[in-house]
Design goal:
The protein is an all-alpha fold. Helix content is 71%, strand content 0%. Helix 1 runs antiparallel to helix 2 and helix 5 runs antiparallel to helix 9.
Amino acid sequence: MAQYQAQLASAAATGKMPSREAAASFMGEVGQRLRSVLVTAPDYEALQLIYMARRLYTADRRPEERLSADQKSDLNRRFAEGAKRLLLENESPPAELVELQAELISYYARLQALGVSDHQVPQLQFWAWRYLLGSLLMMFLPFLVAVVPGMLLNAPVGLLAHVLSMRHQAAALRASSVKLAARDVVLSRKILVSIIGVPSLWIAYGVLLLCYSGWQRISVLLVVLAFPAASYMGVRATEAGMVAFNDLRPLLLRLVRSRRTRQEMNALPAQRIKLQKLLRHIVTKFGPAMGDMYYAPRFDPMSPDAEPWGASDPNLEATGAKKMQRQRSASAVDLRMTPKKNR
């Protein structure tokens, strides 16, 4: 985009292109680039199914094989474009795709009804009372660790930031006729207050310790230097506690609900494995007919150079083989992932 902007600016400065036309061309390019990185879907439910398909397809990877945020976004766009071509733009979609769509809808609806997330499904078969006790300990112990540094070191600044941000929000709402809630100014004000207030509070603690504790200066200095580490530990402990807290709800539902609900939860892991196998089979079967959407290291649905798709192309198989050989060392999302054995 920077290179494209420089070319337009140079053309406008030399008189080769009117400035208004150059600005319109640049804004059109910006819009096209934004559309190329967004995941488009007919509605919210379809978008959630696309995300679900991507999670199922890339599940069971080792930690070193996990996808980055950019790779996840790229893979979401591939699934969205594939669904549009094969289901929405195809007058007679394949029966396997229709079956996959119905299975995804059923699986997603069951997860919503039971209050379970997809990443929690593989652990459902291991949950029992002892797991509940372990989760409670994992939740409360980190919270206890986080209380001391959080309350003593950062709570005064947090309260001050909350009060000042609320006042700033009210002033911004009175001064503007277009703001609905002015939540943007709340966050910016809290950040500014915390940047100034947290170090000032730590220095004040150090002065109080130096004047009234009777400690040596080196001891007070070491305590003050430990404040950042203690605050960081508190934040990390709070995050760990929230993860354990989010895992408690499906566990409690499994333990206190009816026998039928527990049976439905017990059936979820097998349904998930079946969906993974069906999804990977369909990607392997229909993927090569998608052209660049399947083989390119990075897929851009708005690119004019994208290779058209179609199974009737006699050179498609040879072209795909050449692309696969050229891109074996590429760092793209590997859509030709073979199904893994269930561990």
